[in-house]
Automatic annotation (TrEMBL):
<dbReference type="InterPro" id="IPR036390">
    <property type="entry name" value="WH_DNA-bd_sf"/>
</dbReference>
<feature type="domain" description="Cyclic nucleotide-binding">
    <location>
        <begin position="18"/>
        <end position="121"/>
    </location>
</feature>
<keyword id="KW-0805">Transcription regulation</keyword>
<dbReference type="Pfam" id="PF13545">
    <property type="entry name" value="HTH_Crp_2"/>
</dbReference>
<dbReference type="InterPro" id="IPR018490">
    <property type="entry name" value="cNMP-bd_dom_sf"/>
</dbReference>
<keyword id="KW-0804">Transcription</keyword>
<dbReference type="InterPro" id="IPR000595">
    <property type="entry name" value="cNMP-bd_dom"/>
</dbReference>
<feature type="domain" description="HTH crp-type">
    <location>
        <begin position="152"/>
        <end position="238"/>
    </location>
</feature>
<dbReference type="InterPro" id="IPR036388">
    <property type="entry name" value="WH-like_DNA-bd_sf"/>
</dbReference>
<dbReference type="InterPro" id="IPR012318">
    <property type="entry name" value="HTH_CRP"/>
</dbReference>
<keyword id="KW-0238">DNA-binding</keyword>
<dbReference type="InterPro" id="IPR050397">
    <property type="entry name" value="Env_Response_Regulators"/>
</dbReference>
<protein>
    <submittedName>
        <fullName>Crp/Fnr family transcriptional regulator</fullName>
    </submittedName>
</protein>
<dbReference type="Pfam" id="PF00027">
    <property type="entry name" value="cNMP_binding"/>
</dbReference>
<dbReference type="InterPro" id="IPR014710">
    <property type="entry name" value="RmlC-like_jellyroll"/>
</dbReference>
Length: 238
């Protein structure tokens, strides 16, 4: 189902990495041609190998980007939420998507037709800066993700994930887990049983996890764990 953008949709889209560096008048031209796509949980937006025809910004909910390995194992490439855009370089090249995208909750997406953005680039070459900026931020995110997978323990990865959910400046917090634990494990590059062991290890820091939320007694202790650079230091934190 698709419909026209509301003022709230336009405001959220303008906060994304794609639109953040665009002049307001150019953003307006693109959003005038955009529409909202609504997806139910589990609904596929596109599949690996489909031709890319639009750039998407998440207005509400969570989207999973993933690939299926030849063995049948699912590899989660990213999980996108409100204000995050995806598919920019692929859509502008009119190439095939290298991943699949699935709604892991009910979602609303702002879809900008790729041909509209390409036409804008021809008449306003300065708009290319927004694409370069978005591509750089995406690359930076991938580098950080690789660092997290290679240089962080399972407990550190979980700590960083929980800290992202905490309100800024909070001393303690109870946060809602935005999606199920199997997807959290996939996003963090773990098996579900490894995630369970990491949650158990964090109990020593006052973290209590149930089915859909996590109670964090001390945000600062969790930050100390996330920032520890060596396993010796991690041992002193926990």
């Amino acid at each position: 189902m698709s419909r026209k953008l509301s003022a709230a949709h336009r405001r959220i889209a303008c906060q994304s990495r794609l639109f953040a560096s665009l002049p307001a008048e150019l953003s307006g031209l693109l959003l005038d041609a955009a529409h909202v796509v609504r997806l139910d949980r589990g609904q596929i937006l596109f599949q690996h190998g489909d031709n890319a025809t639009a750039i998407h910004v998440v207005a509400d909910g969570w989207m999973k980007l993933y690939r299926i390995a030849p063995s049948g194992t699912e590899a989660v490439v990213g999980v996108m939420t409100r204000g995050q855009s995806f598919g920019e370089p692929i859509a502008l090249r009119r190439a095939a998507y290298p991943v699949s995208a699935e709604a892991v909750t009910g979602c609303e997406l702002v879809a900008v037709p790729a041909h509209v953005f390409l036409d804008l680039l021809k008449t306003h070459p300065e708009a290319a800066i927004s694409i370069l900026s978005a591509t750089f931020m995406h690359l930076q995110g991938l580098v950080e993700q690789i660092e997290q997978l290679k240089a962080r323990s399972g407990a550190q990865r979980v700590a960083e994930f929980l800290l992202e959910l905490c309100p800024p400046g909070a001393d303690s917090a109870t946060v809602v887990l935005p999606y199920d634990k199997a997807l959290i494990a996939g996003r963090l590059g773990m098996k579900p049983e490894t995630l369970s062991r990491a949650f158990a290890r964090l109990r020593g820091l006052g973290v209590r996890v149930n089915q859909s939320s996590a109670a964090i007694a001390s945000v600062s202790r969790l930050e100390d764990l996330a920032q520890a650079e060596a396993f010796g230091a991690i041992g002193r934190v926990i």
